[in-house]
Amino acid sequence: MNGPLYLTVYRRYRELILDGTLPPGTKMPSLRTCARELKLSRTTIESAYLQLAADGYIIAKAQSGYYVTDIGEKRKKEENAPQRETPAYRFDFASSGADRESFRFDLWRRYMKSALRQDSRLLSYGEPQGEPDFRQVLSVYVRERRNILCSPDSIVVGAGVQNLLQILCPLIKDRETVSFPTPSFVQGSTVFSDFDFQIQYRNKNAHVIYVSPAHMTKWGEIMPVKRRLELIHHADAQGSLIIEDDFENEFVYLQKPTPSLYSLAGGENVVYIGSFSKLLLPSIRLSFMILPPPLLEAYRKKAAFYNQTASKAEQIALCQFIRDGHLTSQTRKLKRLYSQKLKTLQKDIKSVFGENCPLRTGAAGTSLALTLPFSGSSSELKEKAEQCGLALSFLKEKEQETTVVLSCSSMPSEDFLPALKLLYSLCRD
Length: 429
What we know:
With 429 residues, the chain is an alpha/beta fold.
């Protein structure tokens, strides 16, 4: 027998369950019976059964014994189910990921290796609120970049925006309605829906108003300062809470950066959310939120019941990465890169679709919207495009129009022209 005896017993019964010899609902032999039949100790059999139960193969019923679950049948169904292949796209206008050449993987690896060498620090669980030195750096970062004055103690770090919303929702459960600018942000609305909030759109009288001022539309329109002030005053009068998701605030090209809602409101009644997915990589799951005093107090009462969700090693790495000035230089590089890529994309669109093509652009972001000369439905065009290796994202506004949102962030500039020519040919077929 290889390995501990209990594992041999475990593997034997696991095989019998998976091949159907022991069908779902079958009662397992008692510990005493099994030990006698296999000529092993009762302790060995009990260890095997506990491992089988932990892995979902059997279940214990009080005063009755162990019974086989349906895990074997489920696995067979999964194995026999037809596997849907993920399409391999030649051109991807739908992805909002990072530009392959924009990120220095070698540099980031260096900082991650340095973080992983801090053995003693990594042996312990991190603070639920986030690493103290990382929150200190973040407080300086938002002051310099967004003119936000806040204490490190008012910052909560999480593994992505969704995770932060899962922390936030229980703190505002006394509110009933939440309004989003459009139905497109399903990741956010899903979290609120799970916490029994009523989801609304463009309702300034909702109890919670969720906005992305630097990303009001998918093609990069920015909320003007006047409108920001009006929203703050209205929310204050109504007693509404504003959640400011400052997505893509770094990529403002055609105007001066606009103050954040949080700074304009003086930190009152606004939750600020920031993320690094567009500046670094989507796979580096580090986001943060700044809580106003009442919610911070509510969070602290619950903090002991939370675990740290964001990678401790990534927090340590990014903390030093920011301190050494690399995030600042990365932001400058990306701003130049995406500004140029957008200009190239606009030029190529006009060369393929004509100078008067219905094109919508904003002052920021990495995408634009193009209304196509296509008489069919968007689903029809999407299917045709996928068959040709072209990934598209559609804007749902008017039934008579087919509008695509073209992202330039992850696609190489040299692919713009052949991808647009393919799209044009599909529209004309």
